[in-house]
Design goal:
By secondary structure, the protein is an alpha/beta fold. The protein has 2 domains: about 150 residues, Rossmann fold; about 100 residues, Hypothetical Protein, Haloacid Dehalogenase-like Hydrolase, Chain: A, domain 2 (2-Layer Sandwich), CATH 3.30.1240. It is globular and about 60 Å long. The two termini are about 25 Å apart.
Length: about 270
């Protein structure tokens, strides 16, 4: 059997946030269990931190991941790759936005730092990070603190501004649009896709045998470059435009359907 690497985004790909109580659909659990029984390498590729995917990985019995949007890669829950955002350029960017109305979110392993004058981002973060059963709330995992101008090493950053002044002057950062809301900030050349490349190389798996599932703006680069890419039906239209396959929604058993249609699993699952 040819070995394969299959990676899933978390929010609205594995976890269904469409109702008041977030859940992992039973069809998704069945699909991931079936993939593991096949002997495939199955894991998560997420913009979340390691702390915020830990419980999901435990539920699904997974031990490989790309987290922080590609800045951290783990195998058997041990880091094999980590790259922080450039400390000087992120500090310069924070200073640029610090006295504006625009929110900024910066995350490392232990804390989430927010500049959020209206409290709207914090409210939306709690809403989006709606927990599944047994999962600690974001505040208990990584406390939310007020962002200041102290230099820190961050692994993730999001800025809610329509444009970045002198964007080209940031030589060590990439700015990935999040729809019309703002940008996710990455180290130059880092993305979920680059993290997947690190994983595939470490596991000695050809990129032709890598499969990636996603739904949102931070999945576009990954789905555009992974040959076997799946956009779930509830995803934004931009991911559907670049993916090689569009599944039904996750509430319609989209993950399981995709795995069967792509030949990763046989039919007959209930």
């Amino acid at each position: 059997m040819i070995n394969k690497l299959i990676l899933f985004d978390v929010d609205d790909t594995i976890i269904d946030h469409s109702t008041s109580k977030s859940t992992i659909p039973k069809e998704t659990i069945t699909a991931i269990k079936g993939l593991k029984e096949k002997g495939y390498h199955v894991g998560i590729a997420s913009g979340r931190s390691n702390s915020h995917i830990k419980h999901i990985m435990e539920i699904l019995d997974l031990n490989i991941s790309v987290s922080f949007g590609g800045h951290v890669v783990t195998i058997e829950n041990k880091e094999i790759y980590k790259k922080y955002l450039d400390i000087d350029e992120t500090n310069r960017l924070i200073k640029q936005l610090y006295k504006t109305i625009y929110p900024v979110v910066c995350i490392n392993q232990d804390h989430i730092y927010i500049k959020d004058l209206t409290g709207r981002v914090k409210k939306e973060m709690y809403k989006k990070e709606n927990t599944i059963e047994g999962e600690e709330h974001v505040l208990e995992i990584t406390p939310i603190d007020k962002l200041d101008l102290e230099k820190r090493e961050y692994l993730s950053m999001m800025i809610f501004t329509p444009k970045v002044k002198k964007q080209a002057s940031y030589k060590k950062l990439d700015f990935s649009p999040w729809g019309k809301l703002g940008y996710e900030v990455y180290s130059k050349g880092i993305s979920k896709y680059s993290g997947i490349q690190v994983l595939a190389k470490a596991l000695n798996i050809s990129m032709d045998n890598v499969y990636a599932f996603g739904d949102n703006y931070n999945d576009i680069h990954m789905l555009k470059h992974v040959k076997n890419s799946v956009a779930v039906g509830n995803g934004v239209k931009e991911v559907k435009e670049v993916a090689s396959y569009v599944s039904p929604t996750i509430t319609e058993g989209g993950i399981l359907t995709a795995c069967i249609d792509l030949g990763l699993l046989e039919g007959g699952y209930e």
